[in-house]
Amino acid sequence: MKRIILIFIILIELPSLAQQSITLEACYQLATENYPLAKQSQLLENQNQLDKEVISNTKLPQLSFDAQATYQSDVIEFPLAMSGIEPLNKDQYRATLSVNQLIYNGGATGASLEVKSAQNKTKQKQVEVNLYQLKQKINQLYFSILLSQETDLLLKAKQKQLQAKLNEVKSGIKYGVILPASDKILEAELLKINQQFAEVESNKASLIETLSSIIGETLSISTLFENALVTSPVKTEINRPELELFQLKKEEIETNEALIAKQNAPKLLGFATGGYGNPGLNMLDNSFQTFYTVGVKLNWNVFDWNSNKKQRQSLAINKDIIETESETFELNTNAELNQQQKEIDKIEAFITSDLEIINLRKDVLKSADSQLQNGVITSSAYITELTNLFEDENMMIRHKIQLQLAKANYNTIKGL
């Protein structure tokens, strides 16, 4: 029974013991979802909905209530022949309820809705652009963590090799083949490796903390960062969200041009007013009365001193400015891509050279190992050659990570 309970407990705890892992693409996705700026997308959508409802309400009847009480110094007086008419009161009172209904405004309401929709698309794309610009920062952090991770593995391999060599040296000292105190040099080197472990882990923890704050996901020092095999750069068109933003800005200007063109269109309104006051519409009846008026009203701004035309000319200039910004962005992006491609070519050449150097270092270390076993060289000489090999292997790992980073940055600049 106890054995069954123990197995059950182990099965429950297994998922929590599983090592967390994450990929570069997952970091991109998490950043777009959890970075504080991402909340603006929904806020802008809510704001756009409210703005469109306000504009749409102009199609609905507009109610207004007015009330006033006045006292005037003089009133209309009638000749003696009409003396039977009671003089008007100098104190007068009136309360009215008016209804205005827009019948026609040349499509200005629809044009205003199109402007709001275009503005919302532009703002949403700006949020996307700002979030996209996080990718290069994520690249730098992710591959720096990956380098720490690979350096840790290389240090463990060196530690294992030194420990095995220490055991051999101690055996050689015991049988008088190797000089005494040679083991002390190896033990000191092992202590240095422990210091290097601590430095690598501290640096990695700092990088992970920064990355966690950006992607909004809790990561730990034990998290496994999967080695991102970034594809080699491909010759395709630039596909950055900034280019879409420039296009949306131009479309927003076009909707504003359409709205301005309709602002001078005739506006036809129907209206009705009902009220109660003293006097009413019959000025000769000096008493409180109810009254009403109904009708239609046409409003048309026939001449605006070319203000409408000048507004459209100003918008056309804005469109040209955006076009120059788009061309400048493409020019600078292509320059960045060329520079990044040269960086990739340079690092690839370094890696080829690294392989040749490491093969030579391994041959030298193999010879030093044999010489140490035969007492020809000291442990210090052996450690020198081992350290040289380790540094060259570490350099090749660094170059490989730098190559992956350069490719990731290239793809980010390209918009892939």
UniProtKB/TrEMBL annotation:
- List cellular component terms (GO): cell outer membrane; efflux pump complex
Q: Kindly list any coiled-coil regions of this protein.
A: none
Highest taxon listed in the record's lineage:
Bacteria
What are the UniProt keywords, alphabetically? Cell outer membrane, Membrane, Signal, Transmembrane, Transmembrane beta strand
Transmembrane stretches, start-end: none
Q: Where is the signal peptide?
A: 1-18
Tell me where in or outside the cell this protein is found.
Cell outer membrane
Q: What is its main location?
A: membrane
Q: Which GO terms describe its molecular function?
A: efflux transmembrane transporter activity; porin activity
UniProt-recorded name of the protein: Outer membrane protein TolC
Tell me which species this is from.
Answer: Mariniflexile fucanivorans
Q: What is the lineage of its organism?
A: Bacteria, Pseudomonadati, Bacteroidota, Flavobacteriia, Flavobacteriales
